[in-house]
Amino acid sequence: MDKTTINHSPSPGALASDPKVAEPVRTEFSWAAARAELDGLPGGGLNIAWEAVDRQVRAGRGEATALRWLGKTGERREFSYAELARLSDRFANGLERLGVGRGDRVCALIGRVPDLYITALGTLKAGAVFCPLFSAFGPEPVRVRLARSRARVLVTTTLLYERKVRAQRAGLPDLAHVLLADGEDGADVRAFQGLLDAEPDDRAPPRTTAEDWALLHFTSGTTGLPKGAIHVHDAVTAHRLTGRSILDLRPGDVFWCTADPGWVTGVSYGIIAPLTNGATLVVDEAEFDVRRWYAILERERVNVWYTAPTAIRLLMKAGPEPARGHDLSALRLAASVGEPLHAEGVLWGEEHLGQPFHDTWWQTETGAIMIANDPGHPVRPGSMGQPLPGIEAAIVRRRPEGGVEFLASDEEGELALRVGWPSMFRGYLDDEERYRACFADGWYLSGDLARRDADGYFWFVGRSDDVIKTAGHLIGPFEVESVLLEHPAVAEAGMIGKPDDYAGQIVKAFVALKPDYVASDALRKELIGFARTRLGPAVAPRELEFMTDLPKTRSGKILRRLLRARELGLPPGDLSTVEGEET
Ligand code: ATP
Ligand code: MG
């Protein structure tokens, strides 16, 4: 599908105050043209890191700030594009000296510090595969990922190594080198800095092809054990394009992506998209903190902000007071990804930050944004938006005999994408069967349920594992949870199906309250009544339980499968697919 003509039309039901009401446009789009905008390697081929940093240096932007690092304790460091190019060259040289190259996996288990960015870019330049591990994982998820990726190199810190890796090293025979960002050379480790210091600043251009493996990302494990999705260098075509067209990134913009680079968003949009578009990347080493975040948005004059519903919920929970008095006038675009963004969140952004959140939908497997409320169109609150140019999306049903059937507007079914975009995953590591099961008739089947309205906007319904059937009705958690979140007392909501002799399943909701509210029978009745008026008795929760916090993945997504397990009284052993916390 190299050539696609998209017809975007302005939408009724958009935010009245949004000034960006666009005329209908017909966009001639081809991936070949998007690819042609990239530099490419001097000898032919393509390399993500080259496009991210060396391209900017060659275009005369070497002195521009690529990375602005904010340390936990107030320290600040800036790296120009030229410096990042040099440091990543050194790391690539170091890898080569260690005998690490094409296709070898280099894992990073490290917080949001500059060495992580140097590692990612240097690994890509060396033709090796970068595989980030979330630094807050406990020893077991770390071991599983190191083993499954057959990592040859691990970049980490002394503390993380001692706590999470050292005792298991004997069981990781492929792991030849451990590089410590803050350590000295030792019996089984080397100093990261020492490796860089021993290498020259420059290096011949990489020799990767567009189809060489570049990134290995484990999914976040919301529905089960994480899968290792493989991406190739050609993904940069989509990263750069979506960074520009959906996040509106322009050279010199200050961009803050709050996702940790341990997850796909933190790499695709926390490193590659902003750098390939010449923006300045803000990296905050610290964890979420309401006041710190407002201060960063203001002080750093953030132009474009990409965050997630889990963070938006926390900001909303903290109320409007901490937002007050901050000058957020630099903020031009705010966007969200990772979970459904309820209309409440979109409108809250408009009211308290001066920008509505633009929802975007994509997955580890898609590598880049596929469906979005793009900056050229009014936001449709509660909708994920429209497919991007070059992306063909459909709502389908899998036929039992194989193949797919296309559904009409407003019908709920599985969200599918026609195969052929550059950042599509090229496999699940060591699981060809599972990879194949994702495709039918030339379409990639996402495992998410959605519907498309008559104007072509897509609405999230739920993950196929989370949807329930009650008395013959199919119910997705999104609509029930959205309504509960409209109630002023509700900070978080999660819905599951509870087995029932008569209805098959009934809707049960779990709710966390905002700080000023106290759980009571009266409030429970009020919330159920509130949902009934809006959703009708067939869809509204029949039962509602209060919790202090809802269980979440390490990336912050609500874990409905844990709520189900809790409801069914499964022993902890049955929850073993939940991944370890840091101890
Ligand atoms: P696993 O596949 O291991 O269960 P995961 O699907 O949570 O984990 P990711 O690839 O990080 O891992 O997440 C992608 C999923 O997140 C999507 O399939 C979708 O369910 C959800 N998601 C992402 N963006 C949105 C959005 N804008 N609206 C609703 N859901 C979203
Ligand atoms: Mg998934």
Number of domains: 3
Largest beta-sheet details = 9 strands, mixed
Beta content: 25-35%
Structural category is: alpha/beta
Query: What is the level 1 CATH name of the largest domain?
Result: Alpha Beta
Plain-language structure description:
The chain has 583 residues and is of the alpha/beta class. The protein has three domains: 1-37 and 392-464, Luciferase, Domain 3 (Luciferase, domain 3, Roll); 38-378, 3-Layer(aba) Sandwich (Rossmann fold); 468-580, GMP Synthetase, Chain A, domain 3 (2-Layer Sandwich), CATH 3.30.300.30. The strands form seven sheets. The protein has a nine-stranded mixed sheet with strand order 4-3-13-12-14-15-16-17-18. Strands 19, 20, 21, 23, 24 and 25 form a six-stranded antiparallel sheet that branches. α2 packs across α4, α2 (48-61) packs parallel to α9 and α14 (477-486) crosses α15 (521-535). The radius of gyration is 24 Å and the shape is globular. It starts with a strand and ends in a 16-residue tail after the last helix. Mean pLDDT is 92; it is low at 1-26 and 572-578. Residues 219-224, 226-227, 264, 337-341, 359-361, 363-364, 384, 446, 448, 460, 463, 557 line the site of adenosine-5'-triphosphate. Residues 219, 363, 447 line the site of magnesium ion (MG).
